[in-house]
Specification:
The chain is mainly alpha-helical and 183 residues long. The protein has a single domain, classed as Four Helix Bundle (Hemerythrin (Met), subunit A), CATH 1.20.120. The protein is 78% helix and 0% strand. It contains 6 helices and no strands. It is globular.
Length: 183
């Protein structure tokens, strides 16, 4: 018998999946400079991110797939836009941030994958990670709207939050490893 946390097909997971699908039209709207469509899609992505968690808690449908899919959806849409902004000659998004974020996410992914192999539960994101995501999204909006000076300062705050959230993730994993029985 499946436990509630093993479910795959939920409204919340569909909302997370919608953010992944939204990445391509969002990048295309940026490419053709349709800022009205960009703003609408960003609002849809933010609402989908809010409602997927809300719906999961309200319907008691917090699943392991959802715990993995939500941050993947966030990262997918963020990375797609970030790569566009890095290569757009008018927007000058700094590549250091992309590389630092990629390093954090790779280390987290390796550890989470290992932990999933020895334990079924998937950890949810930490509150600092949610703040990091929000501030990064705000910085990216400034870069999308061609205000790189403001975006740079907001991105510095996002960089600090990235490092803090990375620390909290690593500390949580280290604490978990201390509880594992020695083999």
């Amino acid at each position: 018998m499946k436990r509630p946390t093993d479910r795959i097909f939920t409204i919340s997971n569909a909302l997370s999946l919608s953010r992944i699908i939204l990445a391509l039209p969002l990048v295309w709207a940026l490419e053709v400079d349709n800022m009205q469509a960009v703003v609408i899609m960003i609002v849809l992505a933010v609402l989908s991110d809010f409602f997927d968690g809300y719906m999961a808690r309200k319907a008691h449908e917090i699943t392991n797939v959802g715990k993995m899919l939500d941050p993947i959806a966030d990262k997918f849409i963020m990375m797609a836009v970030m790569i566009f902004l890095i290569f757009d000659p008018e927007r000058h998004f700094p590549i250091y941030f992309f590389l630092l974020l990629a390093l954090r996410d790779i280390t987290n992914s390796i550890i989470v994958t290992y932990l999933m192999n020895i334990r079924v539960e998937v950890y949810q994101s930490n509150p600092t990670g949610k703040w990091f995501l929000s501030v990064t999204a705000l910085a990216m909006v400034f870069y999308m709207l061609r205000f790189p000076e403001i975006g740079f300062w907001v991105l510095l705050i996002a960089t600090l939050l990235l490092l803090i959230s990375w620390y909290f993730y690593l500390r949580r994993y280290a604490d978990y490893f201390k509880t594992l029985p020695e083999s």
